[in-house]
TrEMBL record:
<dbReference type="GO" id="GO:0006412">
    <property type="term" value="P:translation"/>
</dbReference>
<comment type="function">
    <text>Allows the formation of correctly charged Asn-tRNA(Asn) or Gln-tRNA(Gln) through the transamidation of misacylated Asp-tRNA(Asn) or Glu-tRNA(Gln) in organisms which lack either or both of asparaginyl-tRNA or glutaminyl-tRNA synthetases. The reaction takes place in the presence of glutamine and ATP through an activated phospho-Asp-tRNA(Asn) or phospho-Glu-tRNA(Gln).</text>
</comment>
<protein>
    <recommendedName>
        <fullName>Aspartyl/glutamyl-tRNA(Asn/Gln) amidotransferase subunit B</fullName>
        <ecNumber>6.3.5.-</ecNumber>
    </recommendedName>
</protein>
<dbReference type="GO" id="GO:0050567">
    <property type="term" value="F:glutaminyl-tRNA synthase (glutamine-hydrolyzing) activity"/>
</dbReference>
<keyword id="KW-0436">Ligase</keyword>
<dbReference type="GO" id="GO:0016740">
    <property type="term" value="F:transferase activity"/>
</dbReference>
<dbReference type="GO" id="GO:0070681">
    <property type="term" value="P:glutaminyl-tRNAGln biosynthesis via transamidation"/>
</dbReference>
<comment type="similarity">
    <text>Belongs to the GatB/GatE family. GatB subfamily.</text>
</comment>
<dbReference type="InterPro" id="IPR023168">
    <property type="entry name" value="GatB_Yqey_C_2"/>
</dbReference>
<keyword id="KW-0067">ATP-binding</keyword>
<dbReference type="InterPro" id="IPR018027">
    <property type="entry name" value="Asn/Gln_amidotransferase"/>
</dbReference>
<keyword id="KW-0808">Transferase</keyword>
<keyword id="KW-0648">Protein biosynthesis</keyword>
<dbReference type="InterPro" id="IPR042114">
    <property type="entry name" value="GatB_C_1"/>
</dbReference>
<dbReference type="InterPro" id="IPR017958">
    <property type="entry name" value="Gln-tRNA_amidoTrfase_suB_CS"/>
</dbReference>
<comment type="subunit">
    <text>Heterotrimer of A, B and C subunits.</text>
</comment>
<keyword id="KW-0547">Nucleotide-binding</keyword>
Length: 475
C-alpha cells in the first residue's frame, strides 16, 4: 500500500456569550420551551430590520487579537442564500468578502513537537434554528430559539495532519475563548462545534486530494473517531482505484461510520451579496486599543506566573490552568489563605477525584473559594485532622457548606485532651499484646495498626502525630 498523508482543516463555530442575539433583543439563554426566545426579527418576518449587537463585534475582535489575527477595521456583512427549514429567512447573515479577522495562528504541541496552525479567518454570523426529528410521529419539528444567536466561525488553514493535532488545536482554542470570556464553549449545548475538512494525498505530493466535510461535530472523542474513520475510507477508495467525491458527510458515532448527505457546495452556490440592511462596520484605532487593553491573562502566561509567583510544580500549573474555573478558584482561595501549595493539593487530588466520580466538568464546580480557604485553615490550626477534612470537603464540594459551621455542628473537632487520649491508648495497648510484642521485636509497622485502632476508638477525631508520640512513649 502507498504511504498516505492526511490533510485536515477545521471550521469551528462558536456561540458567543452575549445576553441578547446578534440582530435583535431576544435572549440567547440555552434551552427554554421551543419557539419562545423569538421575535419578528430573528424569525425573518417581512418588513423587519436588524440592528447589530456591539458586543458581538467586540468579542470577535478579542478572539482575533488573542489568536494573532489582523483586524479588518473596515468590514461588512453579506447574505448567504440557501433554503433549509431551520433558516426562516432563507438566507444567513455572514461575512464572505471582508471577514473581521484574518491571518492568525495558534501554536500547539503534540508529542513534544511544537507547530503553528494557521487561522485563515474569523467571521461573524448568525446561527440557524434546530430541527427535531420525531420518529414516533414520523415528522420533523423546528425550534427557532437558536435563530440569530451570534456566532464566530474560526476557519483554520489545512495545516493539521492527525487527530492528535486536531484535538490539541481545539483544546487550545477552547481555552483561549473561555479565558477571554467570549464563550462558555459548552460542546454538549452546541456552543462549540466543528466541521472537519479532510483529504488524503500521497506523502510528498504537491497537490491536495479531494476533500470531504463532516459537519457539526460537538465531542472531542467523536471528532477523533470521525477523522480516523474518514481517513481509512478515503485510503480504501484510492487503493481500489476509485475517486473520492467532494461532498458533505454525516458522522454516526454509534455506528462508527459516516454517510453522504449532499454534494459539497462552493461559494457561488450560495449567491453571496452584500447585506443591504446593515451598514459597514468601522473599527477605529481607539476602540481597537480599548479592546486590547481589556484582554485578560491567557493560559500560557498564567502557567508561567503560577510557577514563579506561587512556587508550585509545572505539573500542577498545567492541570489547574487547564480550566479557567479551576484557575479562578485557585487564585481566589490563595488570596484568602496565602497557602498556594495547599490549595493546589486540594484541587489536584480531592477536587479532581470528586469530579471524576460524579462525571462532572470543572466548570460545574459550585463551592466557593472562601469555603475551601476555611477548610485549609481548620487543617492548618489542627482543629481537624486530614481524614476528617477529606470527609468535610465532600460536603463542601456537593453542597458548598461552611466547613467551620459544619465541623462545630457535627462535633468533628480534633480531641486535643492529652489525658483522655492517653487513657484510650493505654486501653488499645492492653487489648493488643501481639502488636506490642511485634513492635518490641523490631517490626515498626506494628505501630501503624495501633494508631489505626486508636483513631477508630476516637472516631477519627484525634491528631495522628499526638497518637504516635504517646504510643512510642508508652511502648
Amino acid at each position: 500500500m502507498k504511504n498516505y498523508e492526511t490533510v485536515i482543516g477545521l471550521e469551528v463555530h462558536v456561540e458567543l456569550a452575549t445576553k441578547s442575539k446578534i440582530f435583535c433583543g431576544c435572549t440567547t439563554e440555552f434551552g427554554g420551551a421551543p419557539n419562545t426566545h423569538v421575535c419578528p426579527v430573528c424569525t425573518g418576518m417581512p418588513g423587519t430590520l436588524p440592528v447589530l449587537n456591539k458586543k458581538v463585534v467586540e468579542y470577535a475582535i478579542a478572539a482575533g487579537l488573542a489568536t494573532g489575527c489582523t483586524i479588518t477595521q473596515k468590514c461588512k456583512f453579506d447574505r448567504k442564500n440557501y433554503f433549509y427549514p431551520d433558516l426562516p429567512k432563507a438566507y444567513q447573515v455572514s461575512q464572505l468578502y471582508l471577514p473581521i479577522c484574518r491571518d492568525g495562528g495558534i501554536e500547539i504541541e503534540v508529542d513534544g513537537v511544537k507547530k503553528v496552525i494557521g487561522i485563515h479567518e474569523i467571521h461573524m454570523e448568525e446561527d440557524a434554528g434546530k430541527l427535531v426529528h420525531d420518529p414516533w410521529d414520523d415528522c420533523t419539528l423546528v425550534d427557532y430559539n437558536r435563530c440569530g444567536v451570534p456566532l464566530v466561525e474560526i476557519v483554520s488553514d489545512p495545516d493539521m495532519r492527525s487527530a492528535d493535532e486536531v484535538i490539541a488545536y481545539l483544546e487550545k482554542l477552547k481555552l483561549i475563548l473561555q479565558y477571554l470570556g467570549v464563550s462558555d464553549c459548552k460542546m454538549q449545548e452546541g456552543s462549540l462545534r466543528a466541521d472537519i475538512n479532510l483529504s488524503i494525498r500521497e506523502v510528498g505530493a504537491p497537490e491536495f486530494g479531494t476533500r470531504t466535510e463532516m459537519k457539526n461535530m460537538n465531542s472531542f472523542k467523536a471528532i477523533a473517531r470521525a477523522i480516523e474513520g474518514e481517513r481509512k475510507r478515503q485510503i480504501e477508495l484510492l487503493e481500489y482505484g476509485k475517486k473520492v467525491v467532494q461532498e458533505t458527510r454525516r458522522w454516526d458515532d454509534n455506528k462508527d461510520t459516516s454517510f453522504a448527505m449532499r454534494s459539497k457546495e462552493d461559494a457561488q452556490d450560495y449567491r453571496y451579496f452584500p447585506e443591504p440592511d446593515l451598514v459597514p462596520i468601522e473599527i477605529g484605532d481607539d476602540w481597537l486599543e480599548e479592546i486590547k487593553n481589556r484582554e485578560p491573562e491567557l493560559r500560557d502566561a498564567k502557567m508561567l506566573r503560577y510557577e514563579t509567583e506561587y512556587d508550585i510544580p509545572e505539573y500542577d500549573a498545567v492541570i489547574i490552568t487547564g480550566s479557567k474555573k479551576l484557575a479562578d478558584i485557585f487564585e481566589a482561595t490563595v488570596a484568602i489563605c496565602n497557602k498556594p501549595k495547599e490549595v493546589s493539593n486540594w484541587l489536584m487530588v480531592e477536587t479532581m477525584r470528586l469530579l471524576k466520580e460524579h462525571e462532572m466538568e470543572p466548570e460545574e464546580i459550585k463551592f466557593a473559594p472562601e469555603n475551601l480557604a476555611k477548610l485549609i485553615g481548620l487543617v492548618d490550626t489542627k482543629a481537624i485532622n486530614r481524614t476528617v477534612a477529606k470527609e468535610v470537603f465532600e460536603k463542601v464540594f456537593a453542597e458548598n457548606i461552611d466547613p467551620e459551621q459544619y465541623v462545630e455542628a457535627n462535633g468533628l473537632k480534633t480531641v486535643n485532651d492529652e489525658g483522655a487520649l492517653r487513657t484510650t491508648i493505654e486501653g488499645i495497648i492492653a487489648a493488643n499484646p501481639q502488636s506490642v510484642e511485634d513492635y518490641h521485636n523490631g517490626k515498626e509497622k506494628a505501630i501503624g495498626f495501633l494508631v489505626g485502632q486508636t483513631m477508630k476508638a476516637m472516631k477519627g477525631k484525634a491528631d495522628p502525630g499526638m497518637i504516635n508520640q504517646i504510643l512510642k512513649e508508652l511502648l
